[in-house]
Amino acid sequence: MDSFELKSENEFDEKPILFEADSSDKKDLFTIFTENKTFLYSIIFYVAGLLCGSFIYKNCQNDVLDGILSAANQEFLQMFLNNLCLYMLVFAVSVLLGVCLVGFPVINLIPFVIGFASGMKVTFYYINHGVKGIGYSLLMVVPFVCLFLTVIIYSVSMSYEMSKNIYDITIKKSDMSEEFSYKTYLKKYLAYAGLIIVVSLINTAICTALNGLISI
Hints:
Blueprint: H1 2-35, H2 37-60, H3 63-69, H4 76-98, H5 109-140, H6 142-170, H7 182-211
Helix pairs in contact: 2-5, 2-6, 4-6, 4-7, 5-6, 6-7
């Protein structure tokens, strides 16, 4: 009888432990979502930019837009410098917003602008060249936009965090001296800049190689 009572008490004590484990799992999932919300917001703004760019081109199509969006045959060095300058300009804007006191509220406009430009370009090829234009976009536009966007999303996430820390230290007078280090941010920015150079080089090399095989 005593052993039966002891066993029942042990079983009863185990139930709260299981409940605490479940509660901990839910907290972990919430923490993961909170830590990655900047990435999710960047993707949402990029998709919104795609839709807006597609809509704007469809309703405002003209010769000027077509001239800007049409593919031009360029030499390797010229194409590489054009891609590098464009990518570095977007990256520089993300860095400047990172060191800005109020940069974090508007930094997600960067993925939106990238999505807007991509949406206009893909829609241009589709409207003017049909199925062939879609195939051209999938080979010559989409892969490199994805590579560049991946680097920019990481840069935007870090810039958001940096700008938010500067805001908290300056406005809210928070003590974050142990967590905030300019050297850490600088090393990461340099790494992202190196990746952008690599992406520009890959983009230029493949586009130059395929231009002789794919025409539109």
